[in-house]
Amino acid sequence: MIGSKYWVFLVSKHIKIFSVISVLIISLISGLFLNLTVYSREDDYKGEEFINVTVYERINPAIVLVEAQLLDGLSSGTGCVINKSGIILTSSHVVNKASYIEVTTSKGETYKAEVVEPYDQNGDLALLRIKPKNSLPTIKLGDSSMIKVGQKVLAIGNPFGFKGTLTTGIVSRIDYERNKIQTDAAINPGSSGGPILNANGEVIGISQSIFNPDNNKSNIGIGFAVPANEVKKIVGAYI
Q: What are the pLDDT digits (tens) for 121-160?
């Protein structure tokens, strides 16, 4: 007959074995769950969606709202921070002959702005200066000579005052005669001065205008941007 101490030993031994097996099973299940979770998160942001999310999150902090008081009312547009000290690139038609210019950053901080570079009426570009409390994130200018019709582009702007709006499309055409990039990425009033970006997050153009039958009041998929290489001609000393 087996003694009671031996039974206690067997029970204890089996409990330990069961505990070890339980821990292994729980670890295996937890690891599998974590792997599935990680996979699903990565899978949520693959391909073009991954490009859209990462480019937007990286570039939008460097995009600002530009508002200017003109003789005929308030003008609203978009600007790109090109120097962390507060130099901002925008379209000259947004601020031309303005009596007062105000810039609002992506964090909601508002500053008075002044023009630091003469208006480039041909390229429709202007540089503004603000005095921010802290260094600002900046955009990176790409090489617009490398663009191809059909390549993916992203546009960030403030259409109709909706700050930080992202739209996507392609390069629809390169207008060599007028030195403009044509795109079907939605550009609307308020987007002027905003960046046209490639899939790497480099600025290949600055949104300038749209074309449609209703006097440029809304977008129908024909938008134009100033090529980045033209932009470099006036911002070289500030970047």
A: 667 999 999 999 999 999 999 999 999 999 999 999 999 9
Q: What distance lies between CA 184 and its chain's CA centroid?
A: 17
Determine the Cα–Cα distance for residues 29 and 136; give it in Å rounded to an integer: 45
CATH code for the domain of 216: 2.40.10.10
Give the domain-ending residue among 129, 161, 180.
129
Round to whole Å and give the CA distance between 189 and 210.
9
Contact 208, 125 (CB under 8 A): no
3-class secondary structure, 139: coil
pTM comes to 0.79
Q: Which residues contact 22 (CB under 8 A, 6 or more apart)?
A: none
Place of tokens 């960030």: 156
Residues noted as catalytic: 93, 124, 192
Which amino acid belongs to residue 233? K
- Interatomic CA distance for residues 27 and 24, integer angstroms: 5
pLDDT in tens, 7-57: 443 334 444 544 545 544 555 555 544 454 444 445 566 788 999 999 999
Residue 73, domain extent? 58-129
Beta-strand relationship, 195-197 and 180-183: unpaired
Residues 121, 140: Cα–Cα separation, whole Å: 23
